[in-house]
Design goal:
4-stranded antiparallel β-sheet; 314 residues; mainly beta; 4-stranded mixed β-sheet; 14% helix; binds zinc ion; Immunoglobulin-like; single chain
């Protein structure tokens, strides 16, 4: 942010569908435990899935079963159930309901698509060998304040991150992780980036190293009641290295979807998990000034003579 960075200018009549990662979400049931409070798991899981769909744009369908069930020694788990030789195609993400993690309270954000509970947004930039990127993104609460419990949105984002590549069950896991890191090689973008993996007593783990520059990344960390960790560049690149994702939205630029139209208006859905993006419109390319449309979702554009223009910038 800071510098003006024109990202998308679209004549709406020319808008076509682009390749996409589709995460099919299947609620597998289970009862919510008493140490998980607030909203509901489905909303949180949907918002977390939406953020990953924003980050990766390759054509692929991933079915994720999610629900409440006993999980041993942790609040959440991911299991790869099936793959197509290169990528996971079906997985299961479970959130603990046998209170084995009862020493902590977990908070289900009733409004997981927004971050109004948090006071400040942070980005950490680094060059991992393939060019400067935002390695990690997070929100934190105001000094001295806490959420009602550890942020389940962060947990869901982390577990879905495992399903997109960083998984011990991934068909390429053994070959890729043997040297303790994931290397990004051409033709992937940000080639020559290297992402070190964390180790434990048994060897290499499916997490990013907690040391700089990946410390603080979603796939390195865990949930807290004072922060929300978002999908960052290191998380996207690590999964790209494993699953060969090539269409990456490292900046998490919002996607626009046309939700409806009339002869005089066009209705747009858009969601930006990071602050700073502005949606603007004008009714003709010549002359008129761009008008900000505010942060409302959906946004409505007024058309003149059946046409209108909009753009996103940060
Ligand atoms: Zn993990």
């Amino acid at each position: 942010m800071g510098k003006i960075d024109w990202v998308i200018v679209i004549l709406f009549l020319a808008a076509t569908s682009s390749p996409a990662l589709t995460i099919v979400r299947q609620f597998a049931g289970g009862e919510q435990p008493t140490n998980a409070i607030g909203g509901n798991l489905a909303d949180v899981f949907n918002a977390a899935s939406d953020m990953w769909e924003l980050a990766i744009h390759d054509d692929h369908v991933l079915v994720l079963e999610f629900g409440w069930a006993p999980v041993v020694g942790s609040f959440s788990s991911h299991t790869l159930l099936d793959h197509d030789g290169a990528r996971e195609t079906r997985g299961r993400i479970l959130f603990d309901n046998d209170l084995s993690a009862a020493h902590m309270t977990f908070w289900l954000d009733p409004t997981p698509w927004s971050a109004e509970e948090f006071a400040s947004y942070h980005e950490r930039r680094a060059d991992l060998g393939g060019g400067d990127i935002v390695v990690a993104r997070s929100w934190s609460t105001a000094p001295g304040t806490r959420l009602l419990g550890a942020d389940v949105m962060t947990v869901a984002l982390h577990e879905i991150g495992h399903s997109l590549g960083l998984s011990l069950g991934h068909p390429r896991w053994r070959a890729e992780s043997a040297d303790g890191s994931i290397e990004i090689v051409p033709p992937l973008p940000y080639a020559r980036s290297v992402l070190d993996l964390a180790t434990n007593l048994y060897g290499v783990t499916s997490h990013l190293s907690g040391n700089p520059p990946t410390g603080g990344a979603l796939m390195a960390g865990s949930a807290s009641d004072q922060a929300r960790t978002l999908v960052g560049g290191a998380d996207i690149l690590a999964n790209a290295g494993m699953s060969r994702w090539t269409n990456l939205n490292i900046s998490l630029a919002p996607c626009l979807r046309i939700a409806g139209s009339s002869p005089d208006t066009l209705t747009l859905h858009w969601w930006s998990p990071v602050p700073g993006w502005v949606l603007e419109s004008k009714s003709s390319l010549a002359g008129d000034a761009w008008q900000p449309l505010g942060s409302g979702n959906p946004a409505t554009i007024t058309l003149k003579g059946g046409s209108g223009f909009f753009r996103l910038r940060d």
